[in-house]
Every structure is written in structure tokens, then in C-alpha cells.
Amino acid sequence: MIPFVDLKTQYASIKLEVDAAIQRTLETCQFTLGADVAEFEKEFAAYSQATFGVGVNTGTSALHLGLLAAGIGPGDEVITSPFTFVATVAAIYYTGATPVLVDIDPATYTIDPTQIEAAITPATKAIIPIHLYGQPADMDPIMGIARKHGLIVLEDACQAHGAEYKGKRVGAIGDMAAFSFYPGKNLGAYGEGGMLTTDNADHNRAVRMLRDWGAERKYHHELKGYNYRLEGLQGAILRVKLKYLDRWTERRRATAARYDAMFAGTGLTTPFVRDDVRHVYHIYAIRTPDRARWQEELNAQGIQSGIHYPIPVHLLPAYADLGYKQGQFPHAEKAASEVLSLPMFPEFTEQQQDVVVAAVKKLQASV
Ligand SMILES: *Cc1c(COP(=O)(O)O)cnc(C)c1O
After folding, report:
1. What is the pLDDT of residues 188-235, one digit of tens each?
2. What is the position in ligand 1's atom list of the atom closest to the CA of 159?
3. 37: in domain
4. For ligand 1, is residue 83 a contact (CB within 6 Å)?
5. Distance between CA atoms of 309 and 291, rounded to whole angstroms?
6. pLDDT on residue 55
7. CATH number of the domain that 75 lies in?
8. How many CB atoms lie within 10 A of CB 172?
9. Which of 18, 126, 157, 301 has minimal CB crowding within 10 Å?
10. 180 in ligand 1 pocket by Cβ < 6 Å?
């Protein structure tokens, strides 16, 4: 069987260090926040070229608190795109604000900056560009529009640890950025985790308070806060894993380059990569109109694949109340019906990749 990701092999490669970090936490008993979380916040903020990092329990919480720190609530509108994991839109709902959707660029799958201004109203307060699959959204025009209209930009960097746009890391290109450490992400906890990064001291302070019941001093609650703290064990584990992240990302990039080279000339649609970014390949997605059959055939040969994501948010039953209709975001809808994610993880071997490529080439030759 060829897995889609292989967390077991990764753990085996760092077992001694991870086990020691877990043991240390059991002995210090710093189970929630604590010294390792504080160090990890500094280390991950520096890694992301941001001044501040605030550890939280999930990437979704980082999005939620980032919006709250910007003062967003009922009556406000937040612009994002529908081709994403549902959490991006859910976090907007949590604040009481209304999500306003804008279609994607069909090549990069990230929000189409040329369609943003038409969606801005007097109620618009923020834009959440999603660095989907690990490729940064086109941040220069997005920041230009945001500055012109006085909007906050919160990057959804949950799939893009270490990605770069014009030589700058994602994490502080916008006003704030949200990262996820869900186990399958490029930097994954052994449980749940997330972080909000920013250069803005006020946003840092607000998110830091909100994640821990709105208090800087115990029992002195200044804000209506949440229990969104990052666990000590996850901080200790993530500190170990962060040291390997660049090595792992380079392995992902080499795997993507090898996929590209091996598929060249077959007519297969492989990922489009802007020439001014460092794509970190959380996902390597090809496209085929015959996806269901392809996925079945691959499965039959023991090759796992994934679909990120089969239904754009505006067509999900849970968000029917947004009032969008089929056909309103044609690029997102077409992508959702055609993308197929191939195995992609740092420990993927060339032998495994040869098997996947041979199977996909055979399917492509049959069309
Ligand atoms: C994973 C993910 C999230 C949510 O992160 P969690 O840690 O699972 O809450 C949000 N947005 C995108 C694009 C993601 O991939």
C-alpha cells in the first residue's frame, strides 16, 4: 500500500528527541502553555519572519481570534474564497460577521485579486486570502486593495508553513496570519495546535488574552475570552519538529519537481506555480475530469489519494444560508470537481513515487 501521508515513518526518524521532549513535559508538569510553548512561539514567529507568535489550540482558533483582535463582529463582512477547508468560513461565522465569497484564480486556486473590489461594501472589514496547498496567494494586489479601503488582511497560512512570496515568508505579509499544526499539516503536532503570527503589538496582546479567558492576570478578566490554549506537550513536540521543517519542505519540493518532470509531455494538468513564490506543497494536486474512476483505479492498486476539496463552501448544506447558487463561482466549482491530490510527504521514496507515476500515466494515456 502506498499511503497518502506517513506519520509513522516520520515519528521513527525523530523518536529519540520526541520521546525526550514528552518525558520532559511529564516531569515539569507544564501541561498547558508553559515554557516550551513560550519558546516555540518565539521560534515559530522567527521562522515565519513575524515579530509575535501566539500559540492556540487549533488553526481555526487562530483565524477566529485574529478576526476578534481586529474588532470584527456582527454586522461586519469578511471576504474570502470558497475553494478552501470549511474552517476558513466557519471562523468568520464564529465572530457573528458575514462571509462574502470571491472566486479563485483557476491556475493557482487562490483568491482572484481582480474580483475583490467588486465585493467590497461599507460593511467590509477584512480579507482572508488562503495560501491553498502551500502556494501563497497574490499578496501585493491584495494588500494594495486592503490599504486603499482600510481593511485588515488575515492570511490563512494553515497549509503554508515556510512558504514565501517575493522572498518574504508568509506570516506577516498581511496584518496577521493563522497557522495550523493539525497532525497532517507540513508542521504537525501529535494532537491539535495552531498559531497566530503578527508584527502588530496590539493584535498580539489581544489574541494572547483572548486565548486564555481574556485575562492577563489570573481572574482579572478584561475581555470575554476563550479556552484556546496550546498544550505544553504539543509545544515541546513542535519545537523538536520545527528543526526539521526546512529539510522536510525541501523533500516535498524535490518530490513535486520529480512528479512535474515525470508527467511532462503527457498532457496531464500538474500544479501551476507562480515564479515569485516558494511553494511548500502541502498538497500536490493534478486535475482530471474523470476523477472518480481515476481514484477508484488507484485505490485498486493500493495507492491512496485525496480530494482537497470536493465541494466548495458555497455549495455545502451547512452554508446554504449564505444564499449563493451553483454557477456563481465557476472556477472554484470546476476545480472542486477535478482536483486529485497524489501522495506527498517528506518520507515518500522514489520507488513509491515511481509506482504512483506509472499508474497515473496509464490512466492519462487512456483518455
Ligand atoms: C487545516 C486548515 C484550517 C484549520 O486548521 P485546524 O488546526 O484543523 O483548526 C484552516 N484553513 C485551512 C486552509 C486548513 O487547511
Report:
1. 999 999 999 999 999 999 999 999 999 988 899 999 999 999 999 999
2. 15
3. yes
4. no
5. 13
6. 98
7. 3.40.640.10
8. 21
9. 301
10. yes
Residue 273 sits in a domain of what CATH number? 3.90.1150.10
Cβ of 87 below 6 Å from ligand 1: yes
For residue 2, is it within any domain? no
**114-171 pLDDT, tens digit each:** 999 999 999 999 999 999 999 999 999 999 999 999 999 999 999 999 999 999 999 9
Look over the chain and give the mean of its residue pLDDT values, rounded to a whole number. Answer: 98
Number of Cβ within a 10 Å radius of residue 301: 13
| Among candidate residues 199, 220, 242, the one where a domain is terminated | 242
User: For ligand 1, what atom is nearest to the CA of residue 132?
Assistant: 13
Q: How many CB atoms lie within 10 A of CB 132?
A: 28
Flag whether 128 is in a domain.
yes
Contact 58 CB / ligand 1 (< 6 Å): yes
By most ligand atoms within 8 Å of CB, the mutation choice from 180, 190, 196 for ligand 1 is 180
179 CA from centroid of ligand 1 (Å): 8
Has residue 336 been placed in a domain?
yes
Q: What is the pLDDT of residue 367?
A: 79
Q: Is the CB of 85 under 6 A from ligand 1?
A: yes
pLDDT digits (tens, 9 = 90+) for 155-195: 999 999 999 999 999 999 999 999 999 999 999 999 999 99
Does the beta carbon of 319 lie inside 6 Å of ligand 1? no
Which residue owns the Cα nearest ligand 1 atom 14?
Answer: 158
Q: What distance in angstroms lies between residue 266's CA and the mean position of ligand 1's atoms?
A: 33
d(CA 218, CA 37) in angstroms, rounded, equals 18
Cβ(352) to ligand 1 under 6 A?
A: no
Contacts of residue 85, Cβ cutoff 8 Å, sequence gap at least 6: 158, 308, 309
The last residue of a domain, from among 242, 271, 294: 242
Q: CB count, 10 Å around CB of 246?
A: 13
Per-residue pLDDT tens digits for 287-340: 999 999 999 999 999 999 999 999 999 999 999 999 999 999 999 999 999 999
Same domain, 37 and 157: yes
**Full DSSP string of 112-176:** -GGGTGGG--TTEEEE--B-GGG----HHHHHHHHHHHT-EEEEE-TT-TT-EETTEETTSSSSE
Beta pairing partners, 227? 212
pTM for the predicted model, two decimal places: 0.98
For residue 255 and ligand 1, the question of a CB distance below 6 A is answered with: no
CA of 85 to the centre of ligand 1 (A): 6
**Residue 230 sits in the same domain as residue 197:** yes
Residues 111 and 145 in one domain: yes
